[in-house]
Write a structure and sequence with these properties.
disordered N terminus; 27 helices; 5-stranded mixed beta sheet; globular; alpha/beta
Length: 551
């Protein structure tokens, strides 16, 4: 911790190995992650201490109190009276120190930056240090050259886990679920790991519960983080990734591979469940439309274009808005994925929001008059891929993917097959949805490609149409459009925060796109030419070139 007393700073220092032991026991962090964390925080302290007079108080001095209090009193130019001493004795206890290591122990970690930094702080030699150079050394240490997750490999062949020592991190309900899936897939040898000391050493579902310290000694381990809370799961994935020589499989990827491998009513949705999900989907659509009727601002677009960023930013600024993808459903790919193409007639008749009800269409158009509409467009191949993964994350594609994978297709192939099926869906949206609702044909109106947006005002409707790639530069435009000066852009719904993030990242690299599919978008496509300049299209195409199949 640092306290700024005018030109004087106070720094509180504890040996890294003691911090490591404490956080490993309390939070389940691995040793290397804690040491990297210690370096990061103390480099920040070192940077702050440059050109300042400071007082360094060692953790041991705090426990001993007397020397620390004398030093603190000198810095504050204040007498530490007996009442304050008694109060501190009630707060600071020797038993709070659960481990003790010497400076020699720190040296023996063989992490030169770690020992160098500790020595500099201890000897008060911060003025001799080139802090930017040390920060560069730190960045080189934490940079990972390989993705340790086997999510992508598991989608094609779950047998890639063979030969690994499987450890399930989390000995709770999700851990038990993980063990159950592994057993059905034929993986009978596994252990657990948990930070709960009461669980460590116990037997669970034919496995043993390890401590984090034990896990660090297993160099061929494959770790499955089975924690229900998303925030906790991400934290543990991040911290455990610093263990040398281990690989990972996300709970999401295991569950998907399990569905695709087993492919029966026990792993996939039964027909009754699919019908239930379908009616829940319809209910969600109706709820979104009711919200749209009450809101003065609509974030209305095809989806996967960064619209959640705009929605959350509007909410943060206190602007009531509705996030809507569709009012009309000439095609319903979601229904077909859930129920099958053979159910198209049922899908159409069960969806009361479909295009067959003229009264509904007229009433929606009346309700939308006077609204401000924000809509967006994004590079189309990225939209197609992101849309498919959104459906994978929701479980919408499970039945179809299981069938195709069992027929011998790879996961990469079934993803691309669905991308081809929805090709041009984004550009068609502007005619099927926005034009139908507002009567405005955006393709007949000029679009400023350089600025990345256009505003259309006509017949009591205002539309702000912008490119997702320019969004970070358009906060002022959105602010003026909605008339709220408090509006600031947040960063929401990025792919890296999704539960399928590891799988998506690899798929973005590995997917093969047919030349025909790519050329449809990038060879004289009028929709692309309307929104994107030739220079922008070339940059996009360069990013996808390595994914284009040579066949």
């Amino acid at each position: 911790d640092i306290r700024n007393f005018s030109r004087v700073a106070g720094a509180y220092l504890r040996r890294q190995l003691e911090v490591m032991e404490s956080l490993r026991k309390r939070d389940g962090y691995c040793s290397r992650y804690v040491l990297m964390l210690w370096i990061h925080h103390n480099l920040s302290i070192l940077k702050y201490l440059q050109e300042r007079e400071y007082l360094l108080i060692n953790y041991k001095d705090i426990l001993g109190q007397s020397q620390a209090l004398e030093k603190l009193g000198q810095v504050l130019d204040r007498q530490i009276d007996d009442d304050l001493k008694r109060e501190l004795k009630q707060i600071i206890k020797q038993r709070y120190c659960h481990s003790e290591h010497s400076y020699l122990d720190v040296k023996n970690t063989r992490n030169k930056l770690l020992s160098d930094l500790y020595g500099v702080l201890l000897e008060r030699q911060e003025a001799e240090v080139n802090v930017p150079e040390w920060e560069k050394r730190y960045e080189e240490m934490v940079t990972k050259t390989e993705d340790p997750f086997l999510d992508y490999e598991a989608m094609d062949n779950i047998r890639c886990l063979e030969g690994k020592e499987i450890v399930i991190y989390g000995a709770g309900n999700y851990g038990r679920r993980t063990a159950g899936m592994l057993r059905q897939l034929g993986f009978l040898n596994y252990n657990f790991c948990d930070k709960d000391i009461q669980k460590q050493g116990q037997n669970l579902m034919d496995g043993r519960v390890l401590s984090v310290a034990e896990l660090e000694n297993r160099k061929n381990a494959l770790i499955i983080v089975a924690i229900e809370n998303e925030t906790s799961r991400k934290e543990m994935e991040q911290t455990l990734a610093y263990i040398d020589g281990v690989s990972f499989l996300s709970f999401f990827a295991l569950e998907e591979a399990y569905k695709y491998s087993m492919g029966n009513d026990q792993t996939l949705m039964s027909e009754a469940k699919r019908l239930s999900v379908w009616y829940q989907t319809l209910s969600g659509r109706a709820r979104n439309i009711r919200n749209a009727c009450k809101s003065s601002v609509l974030v209305y677009q095809n989806g996967k274009v960064g619209s959640s960023t705009v929605t959350k930013s509007l909410q943060k600024a206190g602007i009531e808005n509705a996030h809507v993808h569709r009012f009309f459903f000439k095609k319903d790919i979601v229904g077909e994925l859930l129920l099958g193409k053979e159910q198209r007639d049922f899908i159409c008749t069960s969806n009361f929001l479909s295009f067959q009800f003229p009264e509904y269409i007229r009433s929606v158009k009346v309700e939308m008059k006077g609204k401000k509409i924000i809509t967006m467009v994004r590079e189309p191949i990225a939209v197609d891929l992101s849309t498919v993964f959104q459906w994978i994350g929701e479980g919408t594609t499970s039945r179809r993917f299981a069938k195709q994978i069992q027929q011998g297709m790879t996961f990469r192939q079934v993803v691309f097959e669905l991308m081809k099926e929805i090709q041009n869906r984004q550009f068609e949206w502007f005619d099927e949805e926005l034009k139908e609702l507002s009567g405005i044909d955006v393709y007949s109106r000029p679009f400023n490609q350089e600025k990345g947006y256009t505003i259309i005002s006509e017949d009591n409707v205002e539309i702000l149409l912008l490119k997702a790639e320019k969004l970070s530069n358009l906060a002022d435009v959105i602010r003026d459009f909605v008339g709220e000066q408090r509006f600031e852009l947040l960063n929401e719904n990025v792919e890296k925060n999704k539960k399928y993030a590891h799988l998506y990242r690899r798929m973005r690299t590995e997917i093969e796109l047919s030349r025909e599919y790519v050329e449809y978008y990038y060879h004289h496509n009028p929709h692309m030419d309307h929104f994107y300049s030739k220079e922008e299209q070339k940059k996009f195409l360069d990013q996808w070139k390595k994914n284009i199949s040579l066949e």
